[in-house]
Write a structure and sequence with these properties.
The complex is a heterodimer of chains A (about 675) and B (about 170).
Chain A lengths: L7 H4 L11 H7 L15 E7 L5 E7 L1 H4 L4 E6 H4 L24 E2 L5 E7 L2 H8 L3 E6 L6 H4 L15 E9 L2 H7 L2 E9 L11 E5 L7 E5 L6 H9 L6 E4 L14 H14 L3 E4 L2 H7 L7 E9 L5 E13 L24 E10 L13 H19 L3 H8 L8 E2 L5 E2 L4 H12 L1 H13 L3 E13 L5 H5 L10 E7 L5 E5 L8 H13 L7 E4 L16 H28 L6 E4 L2 E4 L2 E6 L1 H10 L13 E6 L19 E13 L8
Parallel strand pairs in A: 1-12, 10-11, 14-15, 20-21
Antiparallel strand pairs in A: 1-5, 2-4, 2-6, 3-5, 7-15, 8-13, 9-10, 9-12, 13-14, 16-17, 18-26, 19-20, 19-25, 22-23, 23-24
Helix pairs in contact in A: 8-9, 16-17
Chain B lengths: L13 E7 L2 E7 L5 H8 L18 E4 L2 E4 L12 E3 L13 H8 L9 H14 L5 H7 L11 H11 L8
Parallel strand pairs in B: 1-5
Antiparallel strand pairs in B: 1-2, 3-4, 3-5
Helix pairs in contact in B: 2-5
The chains are: A alpha+beta (about 675), B alpha+beta (about 170).
Bound molecules: FE2/S2 (inorganic) cluster (2 copies).
One FE2/S2 (inorganic) cluster binds next to loops of chain B.
Chain lengths: ~675, ~170
């Protein structure tokens, strides 16, 4: 049987969109990956940390003498000794008094906060000796509940900041008051999103090496963090070019959380202090306790205004997010949902009260989804409530409120335009794939057996192509409007192609992404293209993989660089064949004249001309074959408007989930 | 006041002779050195990974005299005189893949690759015992191995693919 005709968009490509093995897999299935813990410089020293057992306490004394006396111990470091030599890590919002250092100094603000670092010749000695460090604490009042933390008189986590609220802003997009007043009904409810953690199989690890003679601090880390080299250099206070982060490191799962800035500052500091390579390889306890992998922790209060015919008109949403004891980018996780604040639904006006609160919990860090998932959960819970109120089938209610396929591109109240979508189609597919009717029967059977059982339905958007537009929205002093990524492509004298990316592959097969895009443009087998990772001193500007951006941003940068290279080759051809540039076609690596395919200039000769025969090149052209492309996020580049509207991210992919969950009420376990 | 442990004495050392992927290694180790640390740090065979160090995740799995074990929960001295196969030893020849490794690539049975060595060991052992496992048997075999990237389905697919002999082995 003949295959069905393919979509023209499919036919237009030869490698993009085709099933293809990931080049990275080859090294992973043979045990030849290069993860950060696999890099073991000679003379490596090992770190263990002593953590606070208290949520809030004053450090009265630290006695390191017994620890220091043990053979094999190289250093025992306190915050008192180290911190004055560092710049603090600062929050993503405007709160300069909320400072953070790798080791606590004076007080501890959460259980698990690092107080002392021990360095020894083996990790085993470091661990043994960490138990010999004597720390005396005096417990202080603490606050664990974010709502209690915003009440007057609550213990202050950072007294210098003057409040436990690190960020609050009320956004009003559209005529919320009028829409609510005009609606038939209003329904208010509360949704709680408990803390979750994304726990990669590989714990965080960083190794640093310092060379007194030549300087740069070499860093190998299991990292996924935009601007990491710059932030690390700033906190350690050498100039930016004195830190060199090696990106040819495989990352054993990240899901947003492989940030490890505090680990890296500590280890970088120790490497310089000791003049030896130093490694901190978290064990699982260190990772779970204070390793920066806990996500949003939110209380939503939502009011919905809707009509009897089930049209949802307006929404008021207050989100109180408990970010724990310190702040990195956590408050900004209330910012990303601005770009999909109404989810897949037509809601004409929105009030969004975003409150970021500090408590004595483990700090919240960037976690996959960057705050979008809790908002999705609040949105979908809301749809269930309205359906119940109206006595309407909840799938039907969703359908009636979904943005329709023909309405795209669709502008939502907060200023973002959704590029495209067909939400009903994906909902239908999910219901069919899950066997919704069977699932209902299964649920009822579980309930008869005494289980708590329920079905969750969720259609949500995945804002993709991260542009970080929430930064200026959440911090008026931050004028960031670019979130570029980049690639350099070169053809060597033997005609082989190498592409250079500016970050690690970070567990997502980005080498394959780059080679596919470059191969597509230059008509070369992707497997023949080598992709390497520049270190941070050799790299073009980049922001690494956040916000589901790399297919768009790194793929776009790779294709852009390849196109520039192709254009350069065409100019060389036009010059040599004495024909106009637009009369040439690029075919299988060779250039041919469109109207007379017998006239062609082969790839080998082209390469030879570019690399050796300057006299045959167009005047003014740089010799050699290499082009870079730094790409700005499509739709990026703009500041928020005066009424706080912003285009967040360029692409809005979408998905539906249908989940049957059950819990044993006796054991609280899911079977 | 908290009482710390007594100052650790300089640890005693033991000599071991362990065959790894067909090569005999004589080394001196601290008795408390785990087998996985011995492989990774002493021999430089970093294919075996460490995820939990307490018998939960399976990333450290190796074959010990042919049986799968958790190398984080065995001391190197316990493997003295025994034979170990790690992920580095699964391919028939350098530069080649076993059918299972090939199927993992074909079915995208991995993303970050961190769990992969342990998964391969578990599945290799399964196929040695049962060349035609059904889905339940595969899920049972990898029941002690955690993967945070794939959701397991592609791993099951890969084992089925390898068992069916449907991948052309290419290095
Ligand atoms: S590291 Fe051995 S089971 Fe997890
Ligand atoms: S592939 Fe990443 S943990 Fe399994």
């Amino acid at each position: 049987m003949a295959d069905a005709p393919r979509d023209p968009a499919y036919v237009a490509f030869r490698y993009v969109g085709r099933k293809h093995r990931a080049v990275e897999h080859r090294r992973f299935v043979t045990g030849q990956g290069r993860y950060a813990a696999d890099i073991q410089p000679l003379g490596l020293l090992h770190v263990a940390v002593v953590a606070s057992p208290h949520a809030s306490a004053r450090i009265l004394s630290i006695d390191t003498s017994a620890a220091l006396a043990v053979p094999g111990v190289q250093a025992v470091l306190t915050g008192e000794e180290m911190n004055p030599n560092l710049e603090p890590m600062l929050p993503g919002v405007d709160a300069p008094k909320v400072k953070r250092y790798p080791l606590a100094q004076g007080v501890v603000r959460y259980a698990g906060e690092w107080v002392v670092a021990v360095v020894a010749e083996t990790r085993a000695i470091a661990e043994d000796v960490s138990e010999l460090v004597e720390i005396e604490y005096e417990q202080l009042p603490h606050v664990m509940d974010p709502e209690r933390a915003i009440e007057p008189g609550a213990p202050l986590v950072h007294p210098a900041h003057g409040s436990n609220v690190i960020f609050r802003r009320v956004f009003t997009w559209g005529p919320v008051a009028q829409d609510c007043a005009a609606a038939d009904h209003q329904l208010s409810y509360r949704v709680r999103w408990g803390r979750s953690s994304t726990v990669p199989m590989e714990t965080f690890v960083v190794t640093c090496d310092w060379n007194d003679a030549t300087g740069p601090l070499d860093v190998w880390a299991s990292i996924q963090m935009p601007k990491y080299p710059d932030l690390l250099a700033r906190c350690l206070r050498p100039s930016g070019n004195a830190v060199r982060v090696h990106f040819d490191v495989d990352v054993g799962g990240s899901y947003g959380v492989k940030r490890g800035l505090k680990h890296s500052i500590l280890v970088g500091y120790l490497a310089r202090m000791l003049g030896r390579p130093v490694r901190f390889l978290e064990d699982r306890i260190e990772n779970m306790r204070g390793g920066d992998m806990q996500g949003p922790d939110r209380i939503f209060d939502v009011t919905l205004a809707f009509d009897t015919d089930s049209t949802v008109r307006s929404m008021r949403m207050r989100a109180v997010d408990d970010i724990g004891a310190y702040s990195g980018r956590a408050p900004l996780q209330l910012g990303k949902p601005v770009g999909a604040v109404v989810g897949p639904y037509r809601i004409k006006s929105v009030e969004y009260d975003a409150v970021s609160v500090m408590t004595n919990k483990t700090p919240q860090e960037a976690v996959r989804g960057f705050g979008q998932s809790p908002t999705n959960y609040a949105l979908e819970t809301r749809m269930d409530r309205v359906a119940r109120f109206l006595g309407l089938d909840r799938v039907e209610l969703r359908r009636r409120n979904m943005i329709r396929k023909h309405e795209f591109p669709y502008l939502i109240p907060s200023g973002t335009t959704y590029d495209s979508g067909d939400y009903e189609a994906v909902l239908d597919k999910a219901l069919a794939a899950a066997g919704h009717q069977d699932l209902l029967r299964e649920r009822d059977a579980l309930r008869r057996k005494g289980m708590l059982a329920g079905i969750g339905i969720s259609t949500c958007l995945e804002p993709s192509g991260g542009n970080s537009a929430f930064e200026p929205l959440f911090n008026p002093k931050n004028l960031t409007t670019t979130w570029m990524d980049s690639c350099l492509v070169r053809v060597d004298l033997n005609g082989a192609i190498t592409a250079i990316m500016a970050t690690s592959t970070s567990d997502q097969a980005h080498e394959t992404l780059v080679s596919t895009c470059v191969g597509e443009v230059l008509h070369r087998d992707p497997d023949s293209i080598r992709v390497i990772h520049a270190d941070s001193l050799g790299a073009l500007p980049s922001n690494s993989l956040v916000g589901s951006r790399m297919a768009i941003m790194l793929g776009g940068a790779a294709a852009g660089a390849a196109r520039k290279l192709r254009d350069k080759l065409i100019r060389i051809v036009a010059h040599n064949m004495e024909v106009p540039e637009d009369s040439i076609e690029w075919e299988g690596g060779d250039a041919v004249l469109r109207d007379d395919p017998t006239r062609r200039l082969g790839r080998d000769l082209l390469v030879e001309i570019a690399h050796r025969r300057y006299h045959q090149m167009p005047e003014g052209m740089e010799p050699g074959l290499q082009e870079k492309f730094v790409w700005e996020v499509p739709t990026g580049g703009m500041m928020p408007t005066a009424d706080s509207k912003v285009q967040m991210y360029p692409c809005y992919s979408f998905e539906s989930h249908v989940v049957l969950a059950s819990i044993d009420p006796e054991t609280a376990r899911s079977p | 006041m908290t009482q710390g442990p007594a100052t650790p004495a300089a640890p005693a050392h033991a000599t071991v002779a362990i065959t790894v992927n067909g090569r005999l290694h004589h080394r001196t180790v601290e008795p408390r050195t785990t087998l996985v640390d011995f492989l990774r740090e002493t021999l430089g065979l970093t294919g075996s990974h460490v995820g939990c160090e307490h018998d939960v995740c399976g990333a450290c799995a190796v074959l010990l005299d042919g049986d799968p074990v958790r190398a984080c929960c065995i001391f190197a001295v316990q493997a003295d005189g025994m034979s170990v196969t790690t992920v580095e030893g699964l391919a028939p020849e350098r530069g080649e893949f076993s059918a299972l490794q090939d199927a993992f690539c074909e079915a995208h049975a991995l993303q970050c690759g961190y769990c992969t060595p342990g998964m391969l060991i578990a599945c290799h052992d399964l196929l040695a015992r049962n060349p035609n496992p059904d889905e339940e048997a595969i899920r049972e075999a990898i029941g002690g191995n955690l993967c945070r990237c794939t959701g397991y389905q592609q791993i099951v697919d890969a084992v089925e693919l390898a068992a069916a002999g449907k991948v052309a082995v290419h290095g």
